[in-house]
Protein backbone atom coordinates (compact mmCIF):
# COMPACT_ATOMS: atom_id res chain seq x y z
CA UNK A 1 0.00 0.00 0.00
CA UNK A 2 1.34 3.41 -0.90
CA UNK A 3 1.57 6.03 1.79
CA UNK A 4 3.80 8.99 2.21
CA UNK A 5 4.25 11.46 5.05
CA UNK A 6 6.24 14.65 4.97
CA UNK A 7 7.77 16.93 7.49
CA UNK A 8 9.45 20.20 6.62
CA UNK A 9 11.97 22.01 8.76
CA UNK A 10 13.76 25.31 8.51
CA UNK A 11 16.42 25.57 11.17
CA UNK A 12 17.00 29.09 12.39
CA UNK A 13 19.70 30.34 14.77
CA UNK A 14 21.80 28.21 17.03
CA UNK A 15 23.52 30.21 19.71
CA UNK A 16 26.36 28.78 21.65
CA UNK A 17 26.24 30.33 25.04
CA UNK A 18 29.74 29.69 26.28
CA UNK A 19 32.93 30.38 24.38
CA UNK A 20 33.29 29.20 20.81
CA UNK A 21 35.62 26.55 19.39
CA UNK A 22 35.64 24.39 22.47
CA UNK A 23 36.27 20.70 22.15
CA UNK A 24 34.76 17.96 24.23
CA UNK A 25 35.26 14.28 24.79
CA UNK A 26 33.42 12.18 22.21
CA UNK A 27 31.73 8.75 22.08
CA UNK A 28 30.28 7.92 25.49
CA UNK A 29 32.75 9.37 27.97
CA UNK A 30 31.06 7.61 30.87
CA UNK A 31 31.86 4.26 29.25
CA UNK A 32 35.22 4.56 27.50
CA UNK A 33 38.12 6.80 26.62
CA UNK A 34 37.26 9.12 23.78
CA UNK A 35 38.88 11.56 21.40
CA UNK A 36 37.80 15.21 21.26
CA UNK A 37 34.55 16.43 19.69
CA UNK A 38 34.13 19.48 17.54
CA UNK A 39 32.30 22.38 19.08
CA UNK A 40 30.41 24.93 17.04
CA UNK A 41 33.23 27.17 15.84
CA UNK A 42 31.16 30.33 15.98
CA UNK A 43 29.12 32.08 18.58
CA UNK A 44 26.05 32.09 16.36
CA UNK A 45 25.10 30.07 13.32
CA UNK A 46 22.02 29.33 11.26
CA UNK A 47 20.85 27.13 8.41
CA UNK A 48 18.12 28.02 5.98
CA UNK A 49 17.05 24.71 4.48
CA UNK A 50 15.16 26.44 1.68
CA UNK A 51 18.45 27.67 0.28
CA UNK A 52 19.73 24.53 -1.44
CA UNK A 53 22.26 21.82 -0.69
CA UNK A 54 24.78 24.16 0.92
CA UNK A 55 22.31 24.58 3.79
CA UNK A 56 23.41 21.12 4.91
CA UNK A 57 27.08 22.01 5.25
CA UNK A 58 26.86 21.97 9.04
CA UNK A 59 24.76 18.79 9.06
CA UNK A 60 25.17 15.09 8.43
CA UNK A 61 22.32 13.01 7.13
CA UNK A 62 22.46 10.09 9.52
CA UNK A 63 19.58 8.13 7.98
CA UNK A 64 17.62 8.25 4.75
CA UNK A 65 17.56 11.16 2.34
CA UNK A 66 16.76 14.74 3.24
CA UNK A 67 16.56 17.43 0.60
CA UNK A 68 16.28 21.19 0.42
CA UNK A 69 12.95 22.41 -1.00
CA UNK A 70 11.23 25.77 -1.19
CA UNK A 71 9.38 24.82 2.02
CA UNK A 72 12.54 23.78 3.86
CA UNK A 73 14.28 20.48 4.47
CA UNK A 74 11.95 17.69 3.42
CA UNK A 75 11.81 14.51 5.49
CA UNK A 76 9.61 11.81 4.02
CA UNK A 77 8.46 8.36 5.06
CA UNK A 78 7.30 6.14 2.22
CA UNK A 79 7.78 2.70 3.74
CA UNK A 80 8.34 0.88 7.00
CA UNK A 81 11.75 1.55 8.44
CA UNK A 82 12.26 4.96 6.81
CA UNK A 83 13.56 7.43 9.39
CA UNK A 84 15.28 10.31 7.61
CA UNK A 85 17.33 12.30 10.09
CA UNK A 86 19.94 15.01 10.00
CA UNK A 87 22.29 15.84 12.84
CA UNK A 88 24.55 18.81 13.35
CA UNK A 89 28.21 18.03 12.83
CA UNK A 90 28.99 20.33 15.77
CA UNK A 91 28.10 20.24 19.43
CA UNK A 92 26.74 23.00 21.63
CA UNK A 93 27.29 23.17 25.36
CA UNK A 94 24.38 25.24 26.63
CA UNK A 95 22.81 27.63 24.16
CA UNK A 96 19.70 28.45 22.21
CA UNK A 97 18.30 26.46 19.29
CA UNK A 98 15.30 27.39 17.21
CA UNK A 99 13.67 25.36 14.43
CA UNK A 100 10.75 26.38 12.27
CA UNK A 101 8.88 23.19 11.60
CA UNK A 102 5.79 21.77 10.02
CA UNK A 103 5.19 18.25 11.33
CA UNK A 104 4.09 15.18 9.39
CA UNK A 105 0.43 14.18 9.56
CA UNK A 106 0.41 10.36 9.52
CA UNK A 107 -0.93 8.41 12.50
CA UNK A 108 2.07 6.87 14.24
CA UNK A 109 4.52 9.22 12.54
CA UNK A 110 6.72 11.16 14.96
CA UNK A 111 8.40 14.43 13.97
CA UNK A 112 11.26 15.38 16.27
CA UNK A 113 13.74 18.09 17.14
CA UNK A 114 16.19 16.64 19.63
CA UNK A 115 19.32 17.81 21.36
CA UNK A 116 21.33 14.74 22.33
CA UNK A 117 24.74 14.18 23.85
CA UNK A 118 27.04 11.19 23.49
CA UNK A 119 26.20 10.07 27.02
CA UNK A 120 22.46 10.33 26.31
CA UNK A 121 21.42 13.58 27.90
CA UNK A 122 18.49 14.66 25.77
CA UNK A 123 16.11 17.61 25.28
CA UNK A 124 13.15 16.93 22.97
CA UNK A 125 10.29 18.35 20.99
CA UNK A 126 8.15 15.50 19.63
CA UNK A 127 5.04 15.82 17.52
CA UNK A 128 2.84 12.75 17.15
CA UNK A 129 1.07 12.66 13.80
CA UNK A 130 -2.24 11.48 15.28
CA UNK A 131 -2.70 14.69 17.29
CA UNK A 132 -2.91 17.76 15.10
CA UNK A 133 -3.34 20.12 18.07
CA UNK A 134 -0.47 19.29 20.41
CA UNK A 135 3.24 18.62 20.74
CA UNK A 136 5.29 17.07 23.52
CA UNK A 137 8.37 18.26 25.37
CA UNK A 138 10.64 15.78 27.07
CA UNK A 139 14.13 15.34 28.46
CA UNK A 140 16.45 12.59 29.62
CA UNK A 141 19.49 12.70 31.88
CA UNK A 142 22.25 10.21 31.08
CA UNK A 143 19.76 7.95 29.31
CA UNK A 144 17.82 7.36 32.52
CA UNK A 145 14.60 5.72 31.33
CA UNK A 146 13.50 4.24 34.65
CA UNK A 147 10.30 6.23 34.26
CA UNK A 148 8.55 7.91 31.34
CA UNK A 149 7.02 10.73 33.39
CA UNK A 150 9.12 13.64 32.21
CA UNK A 151 7.07 14.55 29.15
CA UNK A 152 4.58 17.40 28.99
CA UNK A 153 1.97 18.12 26.33
CA UNK A 154 1.69 21.60 24.86
CA UNK A 155 -1.26 22.87 22.81
CA UNK A 156 -0.40 24.16 19.36
CA UNK A 157 -2.75 24.98 16.48
CA UNK A 158 -2.56 22.67 13.45
CA UNK A 159 1.19 21.91 13.65
CA UNK A 160 0.82 19.64 10.61
CA UNK A 161 -0.55 22.37 8.32
CA UNK A 162 1.32 25.38 9.64
CA UNK A 163 4.89 26.21 10.52
CA UNK A 164 5.57 27.01 14.15
CA UNK A 165 8.84 27.97 15.79
CA UNK A 166 10.02 25.50 18.40
CA UNK A 167 12.97 26.56 20.53
CA UNK A 168 15.06 25.36 23.43
CA UNK A 169 16.95 27.77 25.67
CA UNK A 170 19.39 25.63 27.61
CA UNK A 171 21.54 27.02 30.41
CA UNK A 172 23.36 25.42 33.33
CA UNK A 173 20.51 26.37 35.67
CA UNK A 174 17.38 25.70 33.60
CA UNK A 175 15.85 24.67 30.28
CA UNK A 176 13.06 26.65 28.68
CA UNK A 177 11.00 25.24 25.81
CA UNK A 178 9.53 28.06 23.69
CA UNK A 179 6.66 27.83 21.23
CA UNK A 180 6.48 30.78 18.84
CA UNK A 181 8.52 32.83 21.29
CA UNK A 182 6.54 31.99 24.44
CA UNK A 183 7.96 29.85 27.22
CA UNK A 184 5.68 26.83 27.57
CA UNK A 185 7.82 24.79 29.96
CA UNK A 186 10.70 25.39 32.33
CA UNK A 187 12.81 22.68 33.87
CA UNK A 188 14.99 23.90 36.71
CA UNK A 189 18.24 22.13 37.48
CA UNK A 190 17.04 20.97 40.90
CA UNK A 191 13.82 19.52 39.42
CA UNK A 192 15.76 16.81 37.58
CA UNK A 193 16.53 14.42 40.46
CA UNK A 194 18.42 17.16 42.34
CA UNK A 195 20.33 18.05 39.18
CA UNK A 196 21.83 14.60 38.55
CA UNK A 197 19.44 13.99 35.66
CA UNK A 198 19.70 17.55 34.32
CA UNK A 199 21.09 17.57 30.74
CA UNK A 200 24.59 19.01 31.18
CA UNK A 201 26.88 17.60 28.52
CA UNK A 202 27.63 18.81 24.95
CA UNK A 203 24.79 18.09 22.57
CA UNK A 204 24.25 17.66 18.87
CA UNK A 205 21.02 18.86 17.25
CA UNK A 206 18.99 16.17 15.47
CA UNK A 207 15.95 16.75 13.29
CA UNK A 208 14.07 13.75 11.97
CA UNK A 209 10.92 11.77 11.45
CA UNK A 210 10.17 8.13 12.15
CA UNK A 211 7.29 5.69 12.38
CA UNK A 212 6.44 5.26 16.06
CA UNK A 213 4.24 2.27 15.37
CA UNK A 214 6.91 0.47 13.38
CA UNK A 215 7.02 -3.14 14.73
CA UNK A 216 10.82 -3.02 14.59
CA UNK A 217 10.98 -0.31 17.24
CA UNK A 218 11.30 -0.89 20.97
CA UNK A 219 8.09 -1.78 22.75
CA UNK A 220 7.91 1.36 24.88
CA UNK A 221 7.84 3.60 21.83
CA UNK A 222 4.87 1.89 20.16
CA UNK A 223 1.50 3.30 21.11
C1 LIG B 1 29.58 13.04 9.17
O1 LIG B 1 29.49 12.03 8.18
C2 LIG B 1 30.75 11.62 7.68
C3 LIG B 1 30.48 10.65 6.54
O2 LIG B 1 29.55 9.67 6.92
C4 LIG B 1 31.57 11.00 8.80
O3 LIG B 1 32.81 10.61 8.33
C5 LIG B 1 31.74 12.04 9.90
O4 LIG B 1 32.40 11.47 10.99
C6 LIG B 1 30.41 12.56 10.35
N1 LIG B 1 30.62 13.65 11.28
C7 LIG B 1 30.07 13.66 12.45
C8 LIG B 1 30.42 14.84 13.30
O5 LIG B 1 29.33 12.78 12.84
C1 LIG C 1 -1.03 14.94 4.89
O1 LIG C 1 0.03 15.70 4.34
C2 LIG C 1 0.26 15.44 2.98
C3 LIG C 1 1.51 16.16 2.57
O2 LIG C 1 1.60 17.41 3.16
C4 LIG C 1 -0.98 15.87 2.19
O3 LIG C 1 -0.78 15.61 0.82
C5 LIG C 1 -2.17 15.12 2.70
O4 LIG C 1 -3.34 15.61 2.08
C6 LIG C 1 -2.32 15.28 4.21
N1 LIG C 1 -3.37 14.40 4.68
C7 LIG C 1 -4.28 14.80 5.56
C8 LIG C 1 -5.26 13.76 5.96
O5 LIG C 1 -4.29 15.91 6.03
C1 LIG D 1 16.59 7.93 37.30
O1 LIG D 1 15.39 8.67 37.42
C2 LIG D 1 14.58 8.32 38.54
C3 LIG D 1 13.35 9.20 38.53
O2 LIG D 1 12.75 9.22 37.27
C4 LIG D 1 15.34 8.53 39.82
O3 LIG D 1 14.55 8.08 40.91
C5 LIG D 1 16.65 7.77 39.79
O4 LIG D 1 17.42 8.10 40.93
C6 LIG D 1 17.44 8.14 38.54
N1 LIG D 1 18.64 7.33 38.45
C7 LIG D 1 19.84 7.88 38.38
C8 LIG D 1 20.98 6.91 38.25
O5 LIG D 1 20.04 9.07 38.38
From TrEMBL:
Q: Does the keyword Thylakoid apply?
A: no
Q: What does the entry list under GO cellular component?
A: fungal-type cell wall; plasma membrane; side of membrane
Q: How does it sit in the membrane?
A: Lipid-anchor; GPI-anchor
What's the name of the protein?
GH16 domain-containing protein
Citing just one GO molecular function, the answer is: glycosyltransferase activity
Which keywords does the record carry?
Cell membrane, Glycoprotein, GPI-anchor, Lipoprotein, Membrane, Signal
One of the GO biological process terms: carbohydrate metabolic process
Endpoints of the signal sequence: 1-21
Residue intervals of the GH16 domain: 43-223
Q: Which SUPFAM superfamilies match?
A: Concanavalin A-like lectins/glucanases
**Predominant cellular place of this UniProt entry's protein:** membrane
Q: Where in the cell is it found?
A: Cell membrane
